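Practice problem: predict the structure.
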Amino acid sequence: SSSLTEVTAFIKRLRRKTDLSNMVKTMRTVLNSHSKVTVLRSDLYAVIEQGFLDIPGNLVQKAFRSPEELQNDIELKCLNDLVSLLTPSTDIRVLLNCVSSNLHAFVIQPSRNKEELRELASDFQLRWNFLLRTISKAMTLNNTDSFG
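Answer:
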């Protein structure tokens, strides 16, 4: 049983590293194209700033939230930080360092113990995935140029 748990954990880590590697390869291709980066950045700002995310039940629905509340959402802060760094000349390591810094500041550092870290990390991951899924949905529904 102990061996099976270790093998399962190893397989999960290996899958995450493979997924990350594939994502980095894709991002390098995008970052090497000035036109792709420009269109992607424009579409992301449009989705975030122009209210395309106003889908019922959405965590960033602007009609029911104050600007102060939106600034407190660490997921939006992390996304805005990434988008602000997104330029054709950006090295993928800069984007990864941004994510790492934000995770350290908003998830790891505020944790007082292992259980609180698990709770904060789980909550962040759930909300981050929801935000990215919502953005993808909005970009699809609005036929943004970068989504294709």
